[in-house]
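To: structure subgroup
Subject: Chain for Friday's discussion

All,

I'm putting the inputs and outputs inline so they're searchable in the archive.
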Amino acid sequence: MQERLLGLSEGSQIPLAARVGITSGEVLVPADGSSIIGDAMNTASRLQSGAASGEVWIGEPTWDLVRDAVVV
């Protein structure tokens, strides 16, 4: 996602960038379209807030699950 956004930014007059926070856990997705609820959402939001533009921060539970499958 970050690579694709960087490619789009190169051809854009407006700089494009994203900060991403990823974690694992249970969430509740209400059928009425209201906000998703759960600690995982709050944690991902905090991780995203700490990341700089172009960075992806991964929470410890997710890191434990994917450490052998991703390059960081």
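Points worth raising on Friday:
The helical segments are 2-10, 39-50, 60-66.
The radius of gyration is 15 Å.

D.
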